[in-house]
Amino acid sequence: MSLRCALLYGGKSGEHEVSLQSAASVFRNIDRSRFEPILIGIAKSGRWYLQPQSIHEAGVVPDTALDIIEDPSQTVDCRPGVGLFCNGEQLQLDVVFPVLHGSLGEDGTVQGLLEVVELPYVGAGVLGSSVGMDKDLVKQLWRAHGIPTLDSLTASAVELASNAELKAFITRCMETFGPQLFVKPARTGSSVGITKTHSPDEIEPAVQNALKYDTKVLIEPARPVREIEISVIGNGEPYAFPPGEVIPSHEFYDYDAKYLDPDGAQLIVPAHLDSTVMEKARAIAEAAYSAAACEGMARVDLFLLQDTHELVVNEINTIPGFTRISMFPRMCSAAGLSYSELITRLIDLARERETIRASLRYER
């Protein structure tokens, strides 16, 4: 009997459209002999809708993104300790695959909801998801574990509320790193809200732009690097696949280069690295994954610094892109794990974790 797997997609974040593409690829590649996909679309309003057969039929067309039909009669709600419901009837689900990116999907919020309704789900848990989403907090964890990462400075919107505080922070960043910086919202994905600065007068607008997307800004030096990405899967024992490399044609690998410009970047799988550097990169990725409390899957992004040849961790993505051309499934495929097999393995990991959790006691 096939297991009923709900694909959660869409969401309120700025990566809504990316999720529609990723979910379509998962939907087309899931092993139908083992799993029956159930589509649940999350509208930009945040409401959840069970999708009709017409969306299932449209979803099998190659190179098309999934759509979301917002039918009020098909609203999905949750009941703690019981599950998900539509029209008063419980949805019979065995596992959930959140194909969501960014805020309110990749940051532990949806994962917490799924734990409250007691449904197993693919990917990192509440802690790993929330930690991985916070670029500042995860860097602190990596540093505590001796894992190399770029130096950075952070400040909250409250700390930068006055003009004097903002200018003092900018001065500190300039004195520490110089004027060539990456200014980032601390908790967004897909390079949303990120600016690369070249001169002092560009920094303040970049900080203000970042604070449109989050209440905390992170600033790093802009250094010449090679961008190395590594797929990692596993629960207690992570396994890192051989890395790939991103060579952006834009000034950096921004949102347009990732999703809008078909020539925005050259994706090389596997990366052209000597065996020593490749194995070191994989070891660092596994260590970064474990330190961030990740489970299930993640894409760990590293920099190979061109001046010092040092490998440092840039960030971790706990729900990486799953589009046809996304690096995460491509790196797995290059190592012999097909897209369909990857989906199956991730669902198996979710169910294995749930079996362990179900054996735990919650009272004396």
Core attributes:
single chain; 364 residues; alpha+beta; Rossmann fold; D-amino Acid Aminotransferase, Chain A, domain 1; Dna Ligase, domain 1; 3 domains; 6-stranded antiparallel β-sheet; 11 helices; 17 strands
Q: Using the coordinates above, name the CATH class of the largest domain.
A: Alpha Beta
- What is the name of the CATH topology of the largest domain? D-amino Acid Aminotransferase, Chain A, domain 1
What is the approximate shape? globular
List segments where confidence is low: pLDDT < 50 over at least 5 consecutive residues. Answer: none
Radius of gyration: 21 Å
Main sheet characteristics: 7 strands, mixed
Could you state the order of secondary-structure elements as H and E? EHEEHEEEEHHHEHEEHEEEEHEHEEHH
How many domains? The number is 3
Based on DSSP secondary structure assignment, what is the total number of beta strands? 17
Tell me what portion of residues adopts beta-strand conformation.
25-35%
Number of helices: 11
Largest sheet: spatial strand order: 6-5-4-3-2-1-7
